[in-house]
Amino acid sequence: MPIQHAQLHWDDQGQPLSSAYDDVYFSLLSGLEETRYVFLQHNRLSERFAALHSGDCMTVGETGFGTGLNFLCCWQLFEQQAPEDAQLHFISVEKFPLTAADLQQALALWPPLQDYSEQLLQAYKNIRPGRQTLLFAGGRVRLTLLVGDASVQLAQLDKQIVDAWFLDGFAPAKNPEMWTEELFGLLAQLSAPGATLATFTSAGFVRRGLQAAGFAMQRNKGFGFKRQMLSGQLQGEALAAQ
After folding, report:
1. For a Cys staple, 61 with which of 2, 159, 162, 209, CB 3.0–4.6 Å?
2. What is the pLDDT of residue 238?
């Protein structure tokens, strides 16, 4: 089956919006700062990368690759904080990936990430449906990109491998299939002991669903105009029940 690409339109500031979901890909205030605050800070990635030992690999999972902004920010922070011989494995799922041209236009919004963006764009030209592995930084950074339905694609992964999750589908009210109890349970199964997660949303059913799956959840101050967001950590007894 051919890839079904995302249908976009662009606002007056040149930022991409989803035509299908009538939603933004990132905060219109600053997508870069939103990613750093919501996903990097609330998964404590700076200190966790710095604490890696020689040869260690940290795995980050994401629901909603979108423009690749979260991956690029994560990669940048990893290079800044992690030992030179540590590794990053970033796993992301996307049902409707951007075309290469749309991705290039979106990534041009963030000059501080240009070096990383150029490498992603070069590798992105050959993506296909299903699972693919893209290597960067001499193989030190690995992106497993899963193109297709989130639950179907994630179910094929090995269990208990993800150390931190970025839950970044479109808003739950506009894209409910990315925020289901089935998917939350799958995230728990794929999580390593003590795995963390963060998401921009504070929707009550998301918090309750993640709690039911075994994550201890808390509300945090949201980014920009958002009043609250959610972060959490997998509890030991939940892991034992898988």
Report:
1. 162
2. 45
Residues 102/66, Cβ–Cβ less than 8 Å = no
Mean pLDDT of the chain: 94
Indicate the helix (H) or strand (E) that contains 18.
strand 16-18
The one-letter code for the residue type at 139 is G
- The neighbour count for residue 120, using CB atoms within 10 Å, is 20
Neighbouring CB atoms inside 10 A of 117's CB total: 23
pLDDT (tens digit per residue) in 192-210: 999 999 999 999 999 999 9
Return the sign of the alpha-carbon dihedral for residues 17, 207, 94, 116: positive
pTM of the predicted structure, to 2 decimals: 0.95
Domain definitions of the chain by residue range: 30-240
Residue 131 is given by DSSP the state E
Q: Exposed, middle or buried by CB within 10 Å (0-12, 13-18, 19+), for 54?
A: exposed
* Rg for the chain, CA atoms, rounded: 17
* Percent of the chain residues topping a pLDDT of 90: 89
- CA separation for the pair 205, 46 (Å, rounded): 29
Choosing among 3.40.50.360, 3.30.70.580, 1.10.1040.10, 3.40.50.150, the CATH entry for 30-240 is: 3.40.50.150
Q: Which residue has the tokens 């999750």?
A: 165
**Can you say whether the dihedral through the CA atoms of 4, 198, 186, 191 is positive or negative?**
positive
